[in-house]
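quick one before i forget lol
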Amino acid sequence: MVPEKYLQKVILSSDVYAICIQHALTTEKQEIMGLLIGEIDEVKCISNISACMILHRSDKQPDRVEISPEQLCGASMHAEQLASELKRPMRVVGWYHSHPHITVWPSHVDIRTQATYQMMDSLFVGLIFSVYQNDPRVRSNQVQLTCFQAYQEPGGSELERREVPLIIENTPLHLYNLEGIANLPKILIQEEVESHSVKDSETKDPIARLHNEAFKTLALGHIVSKVSRPMCDDLVERLNATKLRIKELETIKQDLLSQRS
């Protein structure tokens, strides 16, 4: 019998980390979720995560998230497209979700969900981002991250979490991840529109419809002011920093060329 393999290490690119954090901070009332894409070293059991896919939530819940088979299929197709573009093997290697206002540790539901994914791929990994955790000592919010797999002792009946060492690798912002960031406000807007469409279909009262429409407008305005605008400001700052770095490198290049001559 071949023993089950477990991950020994996860390498997470800094741009995927930034996308996940940005996604997690979009709401402090419900959990968000997404899928992680990358490469697996089957021999060393190391997962290298270099892309992600933000998932649309059809059902918003404060304490759980679910990934449908259709979403998994869509993420697999996205991974295949990336593999073709990048000329290297890419596949869905894990999932992530948020824990707003609660600890970073996976719940029993999270561990059972993780165990289900590991039945399909023993090296599948889960990431949890804990956000909006108040620390009264420093009067600030904390962001915590855990990387885990499900584990069951031989002969045991209870599933447990197994923490996996995580390294965040400094990488440039790739175009495919930039597109993922740009799609985040679109996905949030789509979720809000669908949510209010359901409410409108359930009521015939014109006052209630007007009330729902006002709340939808408020929610969409919140997405623009709290997500889209800061995101654009951040990308502009990234661009300015990149231009400044290019200018510094050009100066260094000219100095080196002048020394050669």
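fyi The chain has a mean pLDDT of 87.
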